[in-house]
Amino acid sequence: MPSVVLNFAAKVKIDMTIEKIFSEVFGLPESSIIDTLILTEIGSWDSLAHMILITRLEDTYQIQFNGDQIADMKSVGDARKALLAQGANI
User: Fold this and answer.
1) Overall pTM > 0.90
2) What is the per-residue DSSP string for the chain?
């Protein structure tokens, strides 16, 4: 039972970190950062902001995305999937 609680707590911590990163990079309230939030809904999501996001995620989770993952990242959910694919501790 304790491991279930620990795993849930770890997921909540990581989710909050993803929300915080998106919030800081795009200047949005953390409460608006949900998996279905997409690139076209964020006016400040341009190529420079995209690379800043990638760098922040890679630095935070100590992983490196491949080119396809970077190009395919068009939503918060895509970022979460890419992190998992790279073995990020989520």
Assistant:
1) no
2) -HHHHHHHHHHHHHHHHHHHHHHHHHT--GGG--TT-BGGG-TT--HHHHHHHHHHHHHHHT----HHHHHH--BHHHHHHHHHHTT---
What's the confidence (pLDDT) of residue 17? 87
The domains of the chain are located at 2-85
Which residue type does 1 have? M
Q: Write out pLDDT tens, residues 7-31.
A: 554 554 555 589 999 999 999 999 9
As a whole-number percent, the residues of the chain with pLDDT over 70 amount to 82
Confirm or reject CATH 1.10.10.10 for domain 2-85, answering yes or no: no
Distance CA 73, CA 67 (A): 10
